[in-house]
Amino acid sequence: MKGDRKYIVLFLLPAAAIMTIFLYYPFFKSLYLSFYRTSGFFVKKFVGWANYERLVTDKLLGAATLHTLEIMLYVIVFQVGIALVLAVLVDNISKLKGFYRTVFFFPVVISGTAISLLFVLFYNYNFGLLNNLLANFNIEKILWLDAKNALKAVSIPTVWHYVGFYFVLFLTAMSKIPADYYEAAKLEGITGLKKTTMLTIPLIMSDIKVVITLAITGTLKVFEFIWVITSGQNGTEVLGTYMYKKAMVDQNFGYGSAVAIYMVVFGVLLALIANRLLKRDEITY
User: Number of C-alpha atoms within 13 angstroms, CB side, residue 185?
Assistant: First the structure.
């Protein structure tokens, strides 16, 4: 290994350079700007902790945080839950696994913006697919994007988009479980739902924790669905859209950077809490 270190470093350099340019530099630049009051790209004034003090009293930021948490709940319950159910079902069939893997994963490769535009057409009050279906059954049309329904409406494409990604992760984890375990369980009379709850899920618990962590951090990055469908209006403002408005629309890069740092810290804390709650003795194989 000592003689190969220079080659290992050589192969790691491209990845390290990309991470430095597109991850670490923007983060530390945002941290730097968060201590300034800015107006446009060039005018800035050092204000110390003023931007962070503003975070504490910003009611719009509080509302955006609550909306983000609500979408996060939908993502954990439905996105992860549906992915797990689909993986269990597909894992128990002997044919067409590759077909189902492709079909369920397909939405992941579609642009989020394209999916958002599709759902804009679904939700259109006068010409949308959903209201036309209701009209066929003589049911009154619904304002899908009003203040009452908008957040749930934008949560649907958010959930649907990445179900296939987590489905593949779960299915891959299940495929690594030795067949001997299932044969032994069958001899003990453990089949069907009991096999899933007593054997499969405990054996992939570490993967479930990873998926939940990914779901939590992924929700904090939700932007295009909200922006394209509602532009953050009607009670759908989330942290991603609020940060964008402050930094890009209002040209207040200092406060926008403070919001970005808040998002990072908030995401790390939620991930730590989730791991703490899910901490348990995992079964290894």
Answer: 17
What distance in Å separates the CA atoms of residue 47 and residue 176, rounded to the nearest whole number?
A: 54
Token pair in block for residue 164: 């296939």
Round to whole Å and give the CA distance between 237 and 154.
11
pLDDT digits (tens, 9 = 90+) for 159-200: 999 999 999 999 999 988 888 887 887 777 777 788 888 888
Alpha-carbon Rg of the chain, whole angstroms?
23
What pLDDT score does 284 carry?
Answer: 56
User: What is the distance between the alpha carbons of residues 64 and 74, in angstroms, rounded to a whole number?
Assistant: 16
**Distance between CA 73 and CA 155 in Å, rounded?**
10
Phi, psi (rounded to 5 degrees) for 145 = -110, 25
Q: What is the mean pLDDT of residues 98-118?
A: 90
End-to-end CA distance of the chain: give it in Å, rounded: 29
More confident residue, 2 or 276: 276
d(CA 265, CA 31): 12
Facing residues of 44 across strands? 38
Tens-digit pLDDT profile for residues 40-89: 666 678 889 999 999 999 999 999 999 999 999 999 999 999 999 999 99
* Closest to 85 in 3D by CA, of 193, 1, 183: 193
Residues 6+ apart with CB under 8 A from 208: 80, 84, 170, 201, 278
Using alpha carbons, select from 234, 238, 236, 246 the residue that is nearest to residue 263.
238
What is the 8-class DSSP label of residue 235?
S
Instruction: Tell me how far the alpha carbon of residue 284 is from its chain's centroid.
Output: 28
